[in-house]
UniProtKB/TrEMBL annotation:
The keyword Nuclease does not apply. Belongs to the thiolase-like superfamily. Thiolase family. It holds the Pfam family Thiolase_C. This is Acetyl-CoA C-acetyltransferase. Residues 289-430 form the Thiolase C-terminal domain. Residues 13-281 form the Thiolase N-terminal domain. InterPro entries: 3-ketoacyl-CoA_Thiolase (IPR050521), Thiolase (IPR002155), Thiolase-like (IPR016039), Thiolase_C (IPR020617), Thiolase_N (IPR020616).
Length: 431
């Protein structure tokens, strides 16, 4: 049968800019802000910075990991609260900590295929305003009462209520299939790979120092909109050093293998981020200069339930696939943005790529991917210092890396983000 459409060559996708509100440790200054409040402020900040008021974009894609059931389509409701044309379509995605980057991939792919010309990708999370659900017993009782056709039937349904039904169901930071928290999973992987406390604390200290330096040189001036009186990430401790970090008690893991502390783990955080993506033509028409190009992306998943792979190791698998498809080696990058879920996550990923057995047996490679130039890693700080509002981390990283590439006058950057559920989302940007 003859094709009904003529295949089109993919278009280049420009990253025009980004915006985020400063990230705040949970139960702090944003404790009373909802996901919709924070995402609206963030998207509207982007609208203001790039003159998008009244603009009908191709679409806005965003998401939250911790989402209230009332947030049926959080992103669409957000758009309706901004100065974008209300005729801008919008929808939610959820890919755990990879949500922000996954949203960017969806928007970028539609732009590349010519289905849309410009869009915003974002993410938001509040650990303060976490959704609390009622117990299954109470839910079933209320549903039965709601189905009742008479007051008598309703009263009969409600007699099924038991005191235990009133215990709320509070979201936990655990994997449903193992019952272990992200931190407990990571502690197992860190012990398996022999990641030292010292190496983790060094990485954490560097994250704070790099983020502080980036703020001081004005790097975030056009990447951030102050919110509720906050103008810098509240988790940032410019004076954080290895000496102080080494005194903190382990919080995940057991015995001598317990190396993970509050200092080398991300804190629970509130915040939002968004990035503006467009075709080259749209950028030119709107007199906007691309910071960088969104080149390619890959996702991977590992079987952490039945197999012995670490929960947060999927990026170690996604990156080699991405490199192979693009004819690149791990050393062909000027900057590396590896999400610091925990310092140990970054260190195990790097160690896995250096390990001949892992690369041969698990990745099917003839030789290890090798090591990276550590001075090129997370050069403007990462999640250990900035904090990690799960779905907002991808947007923070895409915008920061694009700006870094533009500032450097060119180059190539690799993004690697681990996600709950044993998944990983990675991408390549170029300027
Ligand atoms: C979800 C995905 O899809 C993938 C992922 O990204 S996985 C990652 C997901 N994120 C998580 O799992 C979050 C994990 N974090 C947590 O659960 C908690 O933050 C935690 C258990 C690690 C710590 O919680 P906490 O005990 O409330 O920490 P907090 O009180 O802030 O800090 C403890 C101490 O360390 C100190 N401290 C923390 N960071 C420090 C630093 N950088 N420098 C110096 N001291 C520091 C604090 O000052 C505090 O000291 P005091 O007790 O003297 O006040």
């Amino acid at each position: 049968m003859a094709p009904t459409t003529t295949p089109r060559a993919p278009r280049r996708v420009a990253i025009l800019g980004g915006n985020r509100i400063p990230f705040a440790r949970s139960n702090g200054p944003y404790a009373k802000a909802s996901n919709q409040d924070m995402l609206t402020a963030t998207v509207d900040g982007l609208v203001a910075r790039y003159g998008l008021a009244g603009e009908r974009l191709g679409e806005v894609v965003a998401g939250a990991v911790l989402k209230h059931s009332r947030d049926f389509n959080l992103t669409r409701e957000t758009v309706l609260g901004t100065r974008l044309d209300p005729a801008t379509p919008a929808y939610d995605v959820q890919q755990a900590c990879g949500t922000g980057l996954e949203a960017a991939i969806l928007v970028a792919n539609k732009i590349a295929l010519g289905q849309i010309d410009a869009g915003i990708a974002g993410g938001v999370d509040s650990a303060s305003d976490a959704p609390i659900a009622v117990s299954e017993g109470l839910r079933q009782t209320l549903l039965a009462a709601n189905r009742a056709r008479s007051a008598t039937e309703r009263a009969k349904a409600l007699t099924g209520l038991r005191p235990g039904h009133l215990v709320p169901s509070i979201p936990e930071n655990v994997e449903p299939r193992t019952g272990l928290s992200m931190g407990e999973h990571m502690a197992l992987t860190a012990a398996q790979w022999g990641i030292t406390r010292e190496a983790q604390d060094e990485l954490a200290a560097a994250s704070h120092q790099h983020l502080a330096a980036a703020y001081d040189r004005g790097f975030f001036d056009d990447l951030l909109t102050p919110y509720l009186g906050v103008s810098r990430d509240t988790n940032l401790r410019p004076d954080s050093d290895v000496a102080k970090l080494s005194t903190l008690k382990p919080v995940f893991g057991k015995g001598p293998d317990a190396t993970m502390t509050a200092g080398n783990s991300t804190p629970l955080t509130d915040g939002a981020s968004a990035v503006l993506l467009a075709s080259e033509e749209w950028a030119t028409e709107h007199r906007l200069t691309p910071l960088a190009w969104f080149v390619d992306a890959e996702t991977a998943a590992v079987d952490y339930v039945h197999g012995d792979e670490g929960l947060l190791m999927a990026p170690a698998y996604a990156v080699p696939r991405l490199l192979a498809r693009n004819g690149l080696s791990l050393q062909d990058f000027d900057y590396y943005e590896i999400h610091e879920a925990f310092a140990a996550t970054v260190l195990t990923t790097l160690k896995a790529w250096e390990d001949p057995d892992f690369c041969r047996e698990r990745l099917g490679l003839d030789a290890p991917l090798g090591s990276i130039d550590r001075s090129r890693l997370n050069v403007n700080g990462s999640s250990l210092a900035a904090g990690h509002p799960f779905a907002a981390t991808g947007g923070r990283i895409v915008a920061s890396l694009a700006k870094q590439l533009e500032e450097a006058g060119g180059g190539r950057g690799l993004i690697s983000i681990c996600a709950a559920g044993g998944q990983g989302v990675v991408a390549i940007l170029e300027a």
